Predict the structure.
Amino acid sequence: MIHVIEFGPAPANIVDRATVARLRDQLALAAEDKSIKLVVLKGEGDHFSYGASVQEHTPDLVGGMLSEFHEFMRFVDQLDLPPLMAAVKGRCFGGGFEVALLCDIIAVADDALLGCPEISLGVFPPAGSALLPLRTTAGRASEMLSTGRFVDAQTAVDYGIAEYKFSADDFMHDIEQWAEKSFGKLSASSLRQTRKASRWPFSHALETVLPKLEAQYLESLMATNDASEGISAFIDKRKPEWQNA
């Protein structure tokens, strides 16, 4: 009834182009099994994901990376899947947080920490900017994106970012029990239809809002000095020297 997809390698479970390609294939394969009632996406080890590959955000690579990542999100949105759950344990940052936001349901372990720290690199997360306001208030989303502040598991639930919080010690066991109680007696085909019907806000954001944010990122943001400086400083392991331009 439950199909678990685990991505890695641990501990960081970085979301790079290779990881996205593997996830795309694994989710497409899961969609072929019509008996599945819940797909669970989790990171290897003790964390969901430290985030996207900063090395793939350099000016010469970022265009291709963003295009592939956002196309992956639209692909998953349209897949004939049952509910898709992000099982978030430990760190869930940046691109990893965006993958979690793409899912229908987010469950957090009590040790989880979530957020988008991209502003510390002088950039913003297009997918996070499109999807986070669908899960919490516009003001809270704006504050989190603008400050890079992380939220703990309870705050994520209080904000509406996550639907459930479980013990980190029994995390997957608790998810399996919840899934059996919630979906065990339901029709797998009807769950797929309901997922498709209920995702229209996500679909609208991915089809209409995200392309505009991707264009802003590539055409406006990456034309600034500070966006390039922030990425370079991170790769060089030094403090950025902002020009505020």
Remarks:
- The CA atoms of residues 58 and 205 lie 26 Å apart.
